[in-house]
Amino acid sequence: MGAxxxxxxxxxxxxFQTAVELGLRAVAAAGQLPxxxxxxxxxxxxxxxxxxxxxxxxxxxxxxxxxxxxxxxAFRHMxxxxxxxxxxxxxxxxxxxxxxx
Length: 101
Description:
Radius of gyration: 26 Å
Oligomer: single chain
Shape: elongated
Distance between the termini: 48 Å
Order of helices and strands: HHEEH
Low-confidence stretches: none
């Protein structure tokens, strides 16, 4: 919930509560089944949770990678502003930094 913006806190809380309820119902249902079936249900619930978590992680990683590529593409023609206010191209900045070394 800490990563959810305040304007979306209600949606985040609802999603979290749904996940908790489903997990608790799986555990409660497993307790009412015979040992072998209850164990299978718990294993399936854990696997579903892990798989969902992995999917969300991959989707988030792809999204942020695409966002980074888009940002790099959008700012590819930006020029570097020197401390003295002169605009130089990145190649000029490299040459000037090499000459200072």
